[in-house]
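Module 6 notes. Inverse folding takes a fixed backbone as the condition and produces residue identities as the prediction. Think of it as a translation problem where the source language is geometry and the target language is the twenty amino acids. Below is one complete input and output pair. Work through it position by position during the lab.
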């Protein structure tokens, strides 16, 4: 069953022991961020817990953070078994994405329980954290930003870092290639572009909004497909957009094309501060929210963080979904390790002929928009587990001849937040970088003058029956105390 709203998802997390209620008072200036960081580092990518801060200094609104920051909770958000294998998830993703469900517009929803306009508008009434020491100010880190593409007419939902400047002004970081900006490109300087910012909703909406879907895709339809039921939407009060009816907080506003404000810096998912600069902003026209609203956010910074799960799992699945029929059967699995901040990927392939690895590799690095993040691609044979970095590094070290197996792909669009991107590329907004592809697969046809050595393993018939032998070894190695107690 899909979740009705954020609250029903939080109820599930409580039931599963996946969330910690923080009942002592905390300050939204630095303290929430520090506790989130501690929880992520202590628990790791698989064992960290979500957090619900009940008492915020100076505020009545609680803060829910890091809700989808583990693979286990991501699968819960999609009502899947918590131990779903990642390669199997790619197939589930493709099936659900291929069956989008249109939203249902309703007359009223809980997000309309409180409606603030004019002088009542004040986003600072909510506890927006300052997450890291050098952040330029309070940041809404998990806004589901909804716009209407002026070219296609489809709704677009994306997640963009959003700095709170004052009671009615919020900054938006959106690179020129992001769908938010492409959708507004039909406008000229001075034109108004409606923007709705949703904070706190059914997790499937966040998953759809973070996914690297093709330009023109309606993420609200996709969220319907992911949850198996239409998303109920209500019309905004002041702008011609619809938003999820059960949202905790909705901020309605307009972006004026060509007008900029100084935004940043901000501690980004790369683990470094994203640069400050002149960027678009929205002027708030109205705020609507539920009674006893919950503010939802997530900590950004050095992995693991929200992006380590929320974006990566969808990126892995989308690459495989987008490969054409010729290459798709030969890609066995794609791993985007969380510590590589989406810039590192490992592809396990079934190779039939020499040169095929690079052909598949080029197809992978051409799978936009996912490939924009990807900077290093390692190709390995299907006997190598792409999720096991030790096996991957062994393959790179022993199967790569860099004279022929290393390839540079220059001057292609990269990620504007890549801390290694030359400053001139960021200043010019060209945002180009260089990708590297490493073929760590064995040749199909061996060179008779330099044969590939055989890999060393125990005798096969012995290896096939070691489970019983190993159980006997481990039992005998722990005989207990002198009285036979274990």
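Target side of the pair, the amino acids:
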């Amino acid at each position: 069953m899909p979740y009705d709203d954020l609250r029903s998802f939080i109820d599930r997390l409580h039931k599963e022991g996946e969330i910690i209620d923080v009942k002592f008072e905390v300050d939204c200036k630095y303290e929430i961020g520090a506790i989130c960081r501690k929880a992520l580092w202590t628990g790791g990518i698989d064992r960290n817990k979500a957090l619900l801060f009940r008492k915020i200094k100076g505020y009545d609104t609680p803060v829910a953070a890091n809700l989808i920051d583990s693979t286990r909770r991501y699968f819960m958000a999609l009502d899947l078994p918590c131990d779903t294998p990642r390669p199997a998830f790619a197939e589930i993703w493709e099936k659900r994405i291929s069956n989008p469900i249109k939203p249902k517009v309703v007359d009223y929803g809980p997000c309309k329980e409180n409606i603030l306009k004019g002088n009542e508008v004040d986003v600072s009434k909510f506890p927006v954290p300052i997450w890291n020491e050098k952040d330029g100010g309070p940041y809404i880190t998990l806004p589901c930003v909804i716009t209407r593409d002026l070219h296609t007419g489809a709704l677009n939902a994306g997640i963009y870092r959003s700095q709170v400047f004052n009671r009615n002004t919020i900054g938006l970081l959106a690179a020129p290639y992001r769908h938010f900006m492409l959708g507004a490109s039909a406008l000229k300087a001075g034109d108004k572009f409606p923007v709705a910012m949703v904070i706190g909703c059914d997790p499937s909406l966040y998953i759809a909004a973070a996914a690297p879907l093709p330009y023109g895709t309606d993420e609200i339809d996709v969220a319907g497909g992911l949850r198996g039921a239409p998303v109920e939407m209500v019309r905004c009060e002041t702008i011609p957009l619809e938003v999820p009816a059960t949202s905790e907080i909705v901020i309605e506003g307009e972006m004026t094309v060509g007008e900029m404000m100084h935004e940043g810096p901000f501690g980004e998912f790369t683990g470094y501060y994203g640069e400050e600069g002149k960027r678009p902003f929205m002027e708030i026209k109205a705020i609507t929210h539920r009674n006893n609203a919950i503010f939802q956010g997530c900590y950004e910074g050095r992995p693991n963080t929200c992006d380590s799960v929320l974006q990566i799992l969808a990126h892995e699945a989308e690459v495989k979904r987008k490969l054409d029929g010729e290459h798709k059967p030969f890609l066995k699995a794609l791993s985007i390790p969380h510590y590589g901040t989406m810039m590192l990927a490992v592809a396990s392939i079934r190779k039939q002929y020499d040169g095929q690895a690079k052909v598949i590799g080029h197809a992978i690095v051409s799978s936009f928009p996912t490939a924009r993040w990807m900077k290093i691609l390692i190709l390995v044979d299907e006997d190598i587990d792409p999720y096991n970095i030790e096996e991957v590094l062994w393959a790179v070290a022993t199967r790569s001849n860099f004279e022929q197996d290393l390839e540079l792909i220059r001057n292609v669009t990269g990620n504007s937040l890549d801390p290694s991107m030359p400053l001139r590329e960021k200043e010019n907004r060209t945002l180009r970088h260089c990708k590297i592809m490493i073929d760590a697969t064995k040749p199909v046809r061996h060179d008779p003058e330099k044969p590939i050595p055989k890999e060393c393993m125990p005798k096969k018939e012995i290896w096939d029956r070691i489970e019983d032998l190993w159980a006997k070894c481990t039992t005998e190695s722990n005989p207990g105390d002198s009285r036979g107690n274990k």
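Reference fact for the lab report: The chain is about 30% helix and 25% strand.
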